[in-house]
Amino acid sequence: MNVTHLECALCNLRHEANALHNLCRECGKPLLVRYDLEAAAKTLTPDSLKNRESNLWRYHEVLPVVNEANIVSLGEGMTPLFKTDRLAATLPIKLDLYIKDEGQNPTQSFKARGMTAAISMAKELGVTKLAVPSAGNAAGALAAYAALAGMEANIFMPADTPRANIVECQQTGANVTLINGLITDCGAIVASRKEEMGWFDVSTLKEPYRVEGKKTMGYELYEQFGGVPTLLSATSDASSFVNGREGSPVGGIDGADRSVRAPLPDVIMYPTGGGTGLIGMWKAFDEMEQMGWIDGKRPRMVSVQSETCAPIVRAFHAGERFADEFENASTVASGLRVPKCIGDFLILDAIRASGGTAVTVTDAELTAAVAEIGALTGIFTAPEGAACLPALRKLIDQNLVHEGESVVIFNTGSGIKYLEAFA
Ligand SMILES: *Cc1c(COP(=O)(O)O)cnc(C)c1O
Ligand SMILES: [Zn+2]
Question: Which of 340, 420, 370, 386 is nearest to 165 (CA)?
């Protein structure tokens, strides 16, 4: 609702809303959805959220679907935010450490958030055949939402994709092709065949709506950190929900006084592949600021990558705005195996504007972290999500995260999809 137009993220060229688009027709960069936020803010108030459905479509005023009948949903979003004191106690400084458990989404990863938005819009715009290159969880999510919508899903995956991802696609009716190569090679195949086959390419950031689904993680953090008055008053011990530090004063548009605590964490640790979720959350914070929900203070965004596939980390420390392709990329964290991503400048701009940073961990570190987090929290994390723990330790060592801060680790998927990694 409330979509005014799409806008190129690089050259700002305007594209009309009610038509199928992939990339900017001038410069070939991603398109972002723009809303009439003044109109949205009239009904989407923090207070209005308290009685809404428990999935990400609760934010429908700032999501693209016009006709509710086109929403294709498996109940994604509103994942729990766990405070993890036993895990936090293993760190050298005292932090409020949280895990946002995206492994509880349909198809066991946060790719479900992007796909519910992309497939719903595909339905609204009359698409019947979809295609995607995927190194893992995007494929499973596409297959599931396409099945629910009655659409054809054509999926191209590297042959060494975790077996669970291949099987789930086959069992939910997709056409699966395995390729001896990387996700970039799969992407090239989709690009070369899509015209002739009549496929709509739902590659991440090559269509405008997956980022809209994923941005809802930013809205949820706001709610879960006490931005919604009822959440606070309904909790006897509100400190178990939020940052114990004095937050910066935040005036809600409804005039409620939420000055006691900041409705967002100090630091967000994000395992980055294509960067859709990081870009999406940063966009959500923009929208929330324009709607008067938050002031200018935002979380520091930290991009976490594997040492053996780290294009964003390399570009960040080299001071570049665009990231070169990372040669010979490999990592067991298949969601991080993205050697070249089209949203590189959006990730890097957001990290820098937030005062955040970018950091690598080794595959040995991130794999070991799965068992460590599991034993201390009960959450069987995806290796991508687990990577945030050794990354956080490095930031603490470098004095980039400080005593008393609140830190959210994004566990972006479930470890159950990666059994080979623990063989
Ligand atoms: C896709 C994926 C990522 C990377 O997500 P982006 O938003 O594209 O950077 C991280 N973790 C898991 C489990 C994934 O499936
Ligand atoms: Zn452009």
Answer: 420
- Residue 150 near residue 72, CB atoms below 8 Å: no
> What spacing in Å lies between the alpha carbon of 216 and ligand 1's midpoint?
15
Residue where the block lists tokens 């069987």: 380
> How far does residue 25's CA lie from ligand 2's centre (Å)?
7
User: Is residue 40 situated within a structural domain?
Assistant: no
Question: Cα-flanking dihedrals φ and ψ of residue 154, to 5°?
Answer: -110, 115
Q: What ligand 1 atom has the least distance to the C-alpha of 137?
A: 15
Q: Is there an atom of ligand 1 within 6 Å of 133 CB?
A: no
Confidence label for 231 from pLDDT (cuts 50, 70 and 90): very low
Residue 276 in contact with ligand 1 by CB distance below 6 A: yes
Helix (H), strand (E) at residue 299:
none
Read off the pLDDT of each residue in 49-60 and give the average, rounded to a whole number. 95
Q: Domain with 352 in it: what CATH number?
A: 3.40.50.1100
Helix axes 311-318, 344-354, angle to 10 degrees: 50
| pLDDT for res 241 | 37
Query: Which is the closest atom of ligand 1 to the Cα of 274?
Result: 8
How many structural domains are present in the chain?
A: 1
DSSP per-residue codes, 232-252: HHT-SSGGGTS--SPPPP-B-
The confidence score (pLDDT) of residue 22 equals 93
User: The whole model's pTM is what?
Assistant: 0.92
The residue nearest atom 3 of ligand 1, judged by CA position, is: 335
The whole-chain average pLDDT of the chain stands at: 92
Residue 34 falls within a domain, yes or no? no
How close is the Cα of 51 to the center of ligand 2, in Å? 39
Domain that includes residue 420, residue range: 78-423
Q: Ligand 2 center to residue 159 CA distance, Å?
A: 34
φ, ψ of residue 8 to 5 degrees: the values are -65, 130
From the CA of 413, give the closest atom in ligand 1. 13
